[in-house]
Each structure stands twice: as C-alpha cells, then as structure tokens.
Amino acid sequence: MLKILGKASSINVRKVLWTCAELQLPFEQENWGVGFRSTDTPEFLSLNPNGLVPVIKDEDLVLWESNSIIRYLVSRYGGEHLYPADPLARARVDQWMDWQATDLNRSWSYAFLGLVRKSPAHQDRNEISLSCRNWSRHMGILNGQLEATGAFVAGERFSLADIPVGLSVNRWFSTPLERPHFPAVSDYFERLAQRPGFAAYCGNGLP
Q1: Model-level pTM?
Q2: Per-residue pLDDT tens for 14-44?
Q3: pLDDT digits (tens, 9 = 90+) for 80-113
Q4: Angle at which helices 87-99 and 162-174 cross, to 10°
Q5: DSSP of 190-202
Q6: In this structure, which topology does domain 87-200 adopt according to CATH?
Q7: Which candidate, 64, 65, 16, 10, places its Cα nearest to that of 35?
Q8: I want to staple 119 with a disulfide (CB 3.0 to 4.6 A). Which of 113, 135, 164, 193 is the partner?
Q9: Which CATH architecture group holds 2-76?
Q10: Where are the domains of the chain?
C-alpha cells in the first residue's frame, strides 16, 4: 500500500492526500514534521535529503516534492481525467501548478508566516504589507483566469492544477488580512467544495 510521510497540517502533504481522495487510492499516513517525528534524522534524510515533507513510498519507489508526487500518482493510478495525456491540455495544467508553486507561493509566504504562524522572524510590518499587496496582485491574476474559463483554473473541467491552487485559495480566505473582493475566486472555491476530498483536506479549518 502507498505510504505517505508527513503531517496533515502541511499544505504540501494535503496536496497528496487530496489527490489520493480524487483517485480513491488507499494509503497509510505517518506523521512527520514539527510536533511529530523529526525530519532531521538519518532515517528521514535517507529518504529526502532536504528534510521536508511529503515523501511517499510506493513499492520500491521513494519520491519527494509534492507536485512531482501528485503527477506521479495520477499518471500511475488512472488519473487521466485529472492530468490529460494530450500535450496541450497537460501543459495548461502544468503551467498553473508551477505558477502556484513559485509565483503565488512566494507572494504569500511572508504574510502567512507573520499573520498566521506568528513567526518571530516574520513580524516586519512593512514586509507583511508588501507581501499582502503581492498576494492580492496574484489573486487578481487567478481571478482573471477563472473569469476566462468560467469554471476551473486550467479550463472547463477540474484538473490536478486545482488541488494546489485550491489549497492556496483556502489559505487566502483563512489569513486575517484585508482582501479585495474577487467574485470569480469566491465562486471557484464554492465549486471546489463539491469535490471528494475537499472537506477532509482543504475545507477542514487548516490554513
């Protein structure tokens, strides 16, 4: 059986858990990370030298990096409805997954760590304000894309890209900041709430 190493409060672990729910793929989960088993041990570092979650074990395969993991899972376990084989359609999914992992994540990182995690190293009010402005700008980009598709981030149908993007949208609504009103983003989040796995791994009260 697939084994997932990482605590469920991690946004990147939740990408994997939600993907498994969409695939109806059984798994075993082990809690690793702050508050649980340390990732800074020889045992864990032998699996991922970066010392980060998630990591999966699938038979003889050990794999880390959350987007790589969920791409692997849908490719191996019948997820073409989430990650199409057509190169053009797949490229659109990859584009928004990579945008979430790089541009969008970087925009909200400082604000989230300061306002939600209360990190002492992220309490500079000017930096928090700058991060909030950048976050709003990127959410505006997402709103424009959702206005264009009228449904999901990569097109008319739910795709793998909506899992990482949806988790970031959940973080947007869960963070105490002044948010511009983006109607398409709000409607999108309501559509995601109809998906298997949303309640357990996105709309579960965890930012």
Answers
A1: 0.96
A2: 999 999 999 999 999 999 999 999 999 999 9
A3: 999 999 999 999 999 999 999 999 999 999 999 9
A4: 30
A5: HHHTTSTTHHHHT
A6: Glutathione S-transferase Yfyf (Class Pi); Chain A, domain 2 (1.20.1050)
A7: 10
A8: 113
A9: 3-Layer(aba) Sandwich (3.40)
A10: 2-76, 87-200
